[in-house]
Amino acid sequence: MPDHSEITTCAYCGVGCSFKAEMKGEEVVRMVPYKDGKANRGHSCVKGRFAYGYATHKDRILNPMIREKISDPWREVTWEEAYSHVASEFRRIQHQYGRGAVGGITSSRCTNEETYLVQKLVRQGFGNNNVDTCARVCHSPTGYGLKTTFGTSAGTQDFDSVEQTDVVLVIGANPTDGHPVFASRLKKRLREGAKLIVIDPRRIDLVRTPHVEASYHLPLRPGTNVAVLTALAHVIVSEGLFDEAFIRERCDWDEFQDWASFVLQPENSPEAVEKASGVSAELIRGAARLYATGGNGAIYYGLGVTEHSQGSTTVMAIANLAMATGNLGRPGVGVNPLRGQNNVQGACDMGSFPHEMPGYRHISEDATRAIYESLWGVKLDNEPGLRIPNMLDAAVEGSFKALYVQGEDILQSDPNTHHVAAGLEAMECVVVHDLFLNETANYAHVFLPGSTFLEKDGTFTNAERRINRVRKVMAPKNGYADWEVTQEMARAMGQDWTYAHPSEIMDEIAATTPSFAGVTYDLLEREGSVQWPCNEKAPTGTPVMHIGGFVRGKGKFVRTAYVATDEKVGPRFPLLLTTGRILSQYNVGAQTRRTDNVLWHDEDLLEIHPFDAENRGIRDRDWVKLKSRSGETSLRARITERVAPGVVYTTFHHPATQANVVTTEYSDWATNCPEYKVTAVEVSPSNGP
Ligand code: SF4
């Protein structure tokens, strides 16, 4: 068996690249991409190569701290004192305000085993279902949309699948910056001759890079994804380009016919959609014909699909297109969400939602609850708990009082910063378990130091459902891996947890979760990694899902009526802001800003079209004020034709910018995923912050 002892998995994006950590004494000095890593095959991006720097950064907090009020200074305490304080505060609050007054948030940056333990602590220890995760603000619509249409909340393909694709449709994603190693494989396939359709308000790099040029770029107005996708479906149905044999065999024909009559309605025609979306009917017709008739068609999408008031509807509109054209259930096709964080897929798989147990089984299913009730020795609540925004609302209203946040900075990453702050401020015990004193920690009463991916064992699950090993290559600077901290909290609250190693947590996951039934650390050691479902039927995992039949039985067509967002432009706020990432930074930058990545990029910029800049007297690199109905911030302008007139764009990597002070209160109708991608704003010259 090969020696994998120094092979671990990048803790940034959902590609999940494998690396060898080269050590000098107790410290990592180099991350070398691992040639046998199945997700990256020896490649990496600039983020991954420098991913070790933050583990030894001076800003890390290594000792637990407590304070009575958030205006008090922090006081260092022993771990025992911290656990006992948290346990007594949570017990007091539940006694005083009720069992539902407390909750927890799991982290997509932590391992599967760690997120499993946080949801277990909430369900077994707190006795409620008030657990949620940062997927709430990114891919929760993927979970809803793909479960509804296909029966499981995950992408359908492995990354290798792209090598057999003839037409790639990228919507609401910028793989070059967000998922660079996968983007390289995608570009290789495009250079070999596959055709490309890009649906995005910005002219992202992929539209034209060396030797790659999109056949179609549909530069739609932010907020009109559903209209454009339904118009593509209109063309496919009206011109008879659908795959009748596939639909008759794999879907419900009557349901298809109902959906077909819906997409054929005049308001869904390319001509009707042209006005709302800003995309010409000709482009819509051309893109639809290419996707439907160009051979194997694969759709890749990102947060530009999910972070909308119709995020779940958009995911279902994508699923409709793939089913209608028979582009599912074999290599080279499929519906592929490019998950943002390293373990956002895993955090969702592990039951981090208030309505779902591990493996996406609804909390109301008696048989599922019975499995855990017998193992955990408790009666589980059969009602869904609170989502993150509901927790914050309840805190402001006075009924939610304590929160355990593992590895997430909700103040910086969640929308409507002022409301998040008000919710946190209203709580009596906020426990932040993290590497650094982040923005959320400004409102915390207890700080528990976290561990980096280099300091612990476990697994991450990437965007292709691949379960990769995370291996401890250095001792935790703070003394304990995150799973150990959660275990001690549970013990302090009276639970008799006795895990000696994360492999034992995985054994419990496998014993209780059908899609993980065959997963063991021994198997991962032998195979390197496996893709779930991994069980008796698929002992070494499942690269492509829905072969021969959908997980839900028949694929479900859903009517996807376009409903314009409530966020409207007007005389005071005439521009539409949309947001995204850049290659060298990762999310709110808590990690990358503490590595050598800052050499590549160290501020958020506002992209604005020359026409809009000139009208406002703004020159390139000028400071500007970005103002919306929710708030305002300052940043520098970058004048570019990447964005269309009327649209501006920025990133959200730097706390100095706090881009989310301007984002809106609107969210996806099904999942509450915030509508980060559409905010009406005005931009004006300023003198800086
Ligand atoms: Fe790979 Fe993503 Fe890490 Fe880059 S950030 S090395 S693409 S996992």
Write the layout of secondary structure elements.
Layout: E1 7-9, E2 18-24, E3 27-33, H1 46-49, E4 65-66, E5 75-76, H2 79-97, E6 102-106, H3 112-126, E7 131-133, H4 140-149, E8 167-171, H5 175-178, H6 180-191, E9 195-199, E10 208-209, E11 212-213, E12 216-218, H7 225-238, H8 244-250, H9 253-263, H10 270-277, H11 281-293, E13 297-301, H12 303-306, H13 311-324, E14 334-337, H14 344-349, E15 356-357, E16 361-362, H15 366-376, H16 388-397, E17 402-406, H17 410-413, H18 417-426, E18 429-434, E19 446-449, E20 458-461, E21 466-470, H19 482-492, H20 502-512, H21 521-527, E22 529-531, E23 575-580, E24 605-608, H22 610-615, E25 623-628, E26 632-639, E27 647-651, E28 679-685
Parallel strand pairs: 6-7, 6-17, 8-9, 8-13, 9-12, 13-14, 17-18, 18-19, 23-27, 24-26
Antiparallel strand pairs: 1-2, 2-3, 4-5, 4-19, 10-11, 15-16, 20-21, 21-22, 23-28, 24-27, 25-26, 25-28
Give an overview in words.
The protein has 689 residues and is of the alpha/beta class. The relative contact order is 0.17. The protein has 22 helices and 28 strands. Helix content is 31%, strand content 18%. The longest helix is centred in the first third of the chain and has 19 residues, at 79-97. The strands form 7 sheets. A 7-stranded mixed beta sheet has the order 5-4-19-18-17-6-7, covered by helices on one side. It folds into 3 domains: 65-134 and 352-455 and 476-522, Rossmann fold, CATH 3.40.50.740; 140-337, Dimethylsulfoxide Reductase, domain 2 (3-Layer(aba) Sandwich); 575-685, Barwin-like endoglucanases (Beta Barrel). It is globular and about 70 Å long. The structure holds iron/sulfur cluster (SF4). Iron/sulfur cluster binds next to helix 1 and helix 6.
